[in-house]
Amino acid sequence: MEHLILGLLILSPMTGYEIQRFIKQNLSLICSHSAGSVQIALSKLQRENYIAAHDTMEGRRHKKTFSITEQGRTTFFNWIAQPMQVGKVKNMELSRLFFLGLAAPQERVAAIQDYIRQIDEMQKVLQTIQQRFQQAQELALPPEQDWNSILQFQGYTLAYGIAAAQFERDWYSHLLQKMEESL
Q: Domain limits at 21?
């Protein structure tokens, strides 16, 4: 969560609410978007001097905007330069599949059917994100970033999510068909 927030703050200073909303709208399939998770991460980053908070007033509302410090920038770029690690990607729900043979046959079928339903919902979320992503590419963006590269890799992440969801749906649909045939 901390590196994700640092990356967002490199793109633009944000309030805690804006960070939470961005994660909820665009990255909820990657990490938690709860206010508590965001606030804990912001507090930790502030204690470590990776981010700074600036208090402002917007009308009668107190607003705390966070920005990344040079130390935070260095930490982020050291992290992003490291190779991605296969062992870090975990899906704890596979443990449920691993032990599904202990459930009654109808419960197994129901569990897989419900999982496919959830994948369908996730695909709808990804399609919504993809639409917002395409709209965002048409906006005029501030000149201080290499937005073509940034958007290119964000697009790759989205394409991965869409392909992974389709793979899972196909795989579990095939499994469900085999399970229903054996009933």
A: 1-82
